[in-house]
Design a protein that fits this description.
The complex is a heterodimer of chains A (about 160) and B (about 150). Chain A is α/β, with parallel strands linked by helices and about 160 residues long. Chain A has five helices and five strands; from the N terminus they run βαβααβαβαβ. Chain A has a domain of about 110 residues: Rossmann fold. Helices cover about 45% and strands about 20% of the residues of chain B. Chain B has a five-stranded parallel sheet with strand order 3-2-1-4-5, with helices on both faces. The chains are: A alpha/beta (about 160), B alpha/beta (about 150). Chain B: Pfam families: Usp (PF00582).
Chain lengths: ~160, ~150
């Protein structure tokens, strides 16, 4: 067993609500996580770009805009609750769930640097409609820009 | 995964990058009971094609030399694993017709490994991309999780 003499690993896990990122979280917990590790989840709810409030701005209708933004926030709160449930069901102690908007790859690497991460964990693909390659654009970005080892959780049944 | 033996394939190419990847695996992932397959895929370059056609002995000699180096590399790895109490194997596979990436993926699949661990760059002088061509291939074709251990920045 590893000696626990204060060697605490910091893991940053990039998630977007997809099956792939849930698989990555589960795999990390079952295979890498050790009690005492600090885990940060960088959560980027993909759909937020689809219901972009900016489109409503064109109407100039303040009430409408407010409603759209509120609905968006409600939707994201619901997703965050679901994520917290998932984390609890895995019995994983997470230090912080950092919700981000836009540019997930860049933000994941940024958080990893800020938190002095020892490892970054990502799935292979997200929910996003653009699937150019098997290796998603986010995991691809992270691999090329990370300063620390990157665990890419690929699963044959999730291709 | 509880109760099932985990198998991890560590790609070894003699570079300090793959050594660092192996060390990282030992410190961060390895649990007692894990089976570690250290795999080296021998690549050997056929430089000077006209020369080869006229001097087959030189090719055989080069092959023997390379084999000596890789055999030593893998036996050193086997020693290192034994020292750390890691059960597993340390093998060399000739990368004849297929690329090292293909051999790694093939080995991973036939052994049903749970994880592949590799560095990004090998010994090769050809450094076309930040992500070496072998790790790039493996990332795109592996059916199991892959850890990419990048060089220290």
């Amino acid at each position: 067993m590893a000696e626990m003499e204060g060697t605490q690993t910091v893991a940053v896990i990039g998630m977007d609500g997809s099956e792939h990122s849930e698989y990555a979280l589960k795999w990390y917990k079952e295979n890498v996580h050790r009690p005492g590790n600090k885990v940060y989840i960088v959560y980027s709810p993909e759909y937020s770009s689809i219901t972009n409030p900016a489109s409503s701005v064109m109407t100039g209708n303040a009430t409408h805009i407010l409603r759209v933004v509120q609905e968006e926030e409600q939707r994201i709160s619901a997703l965050l609750s679901k994520l917290k449930e998932k984390v609890d069901s895995l019995q994983l102690e997470v230090s912080e769930i950092i919700r981000i908007n836009g540019d997930p790859g860049h933000k994941i690497v940024k958080v990893a640097v800020e938190k002095h991460a020892d490892v970054i964990v990502v799935g292979t693909r997200g929910i996003g409609k653009i699937r150019r390659t098997f290796l998603g654009s986010v995991s691809d970005y992270v691999i090329h820009h990370s300063h620390v080892p990157v665990l890419v959780c690929s699963h044959k049944d999730l291709h | 995964m509880a109760g099932k033996e985990r198998k991890v394939l560590v790609s070894v190419d003699g570079s300090e990058h793959s050594m660092r990847a192996f060390d990282w695996y030992c410190e961060n992932i390895h649990k007692p009971g894990d089976y570690c397959l250290a795999l080296n895929v021998t690549e050997f370059s056929m430089h000077g094609l006209p020369g080869i056609l006229s001097n087959p002995d030189a090719v055989v000699d080069e092959y023997k030399q390379i084999k000596q180096v890789t055999d030593k590399l893998m036996s050193d790895f086997a020693d290192k694993m034994r020292q750390k109490g890691i059960k597993g194997s340390a093998d060399t596979v000739p990368g004849g017709g297929s690329s090292p990436g293909e051999e790694i993926v093939k080995m991973a699949e036939s052994n049903k490994v749970n994880l592949i661990v590799m560095g990004t760059r090998g010994l090769g002088k050809l450094r076309r991309t930040i992500l070496g061509s072998v790790s790039d291939y493996v990332l795109h074709h592996a059916n199991c999780p892959v850890v990419i251990v990048r060089p220290e920045q």
